[in-house]
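Fold in tokens:
===
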Amino acid sequence: MRSDARENREKLLRAASDHFAAEGPDASLEAIARTAGVGIGTLYRHFPTRESLIEAVYRNEVDQLCAAAGELLAERQPAEALAQWMERFVAYATTKRGLIGALKTIVSAQSDLFPTTRERLLATVGELLAAGIAAGQIRPDVSAEDVLTSMNAIWAIASDGDQWAARAQRVLRLLMDGLRFGAGAGA
């Protein structure tokens, strides 16, 4: 892909992510193109259908979330990296909440979208946990499956506008407190 086409695609994904998070899956494609600074034809060249755009946004969000783990581990102590990654998980979840109904509708039962996403998230959580356990900052008796399952509790939080993200972050901070508890004892 040419650099200008790649740049337009990235701008469209960012704009679509913002619009879908704010307005849901029925957000105006024209508004998305306008926000990205491109014409509607450019949007359709990259994403021939609304469904292909929704799936691309979802995959892009997962890619960014998983890539953040390595960056955070390079910049911070492992427990802080995990806590910061969980905050990014809330941002990812905010976008996904706006898309979840549409994703379930457009993804066929044979699609690997959700299982592949789950495996990538488990691997990422596993990487963050391993670093934290090795540093004696995270208790050693938890698995990536335990943590991801606990993180998924945020989906049960009632949707109450702007308060959802703040409540989700509080829940994940409680989880971090539990992951730090007894960290030095079993290391």
The chain has two domains: 1-48, 50-186. The domain at 1-48 is CATH 1.10.10.60 (Arc Repressor Mutant, subunit A). The CA atoms of residues 103 and 171 lie 25 Å apart.
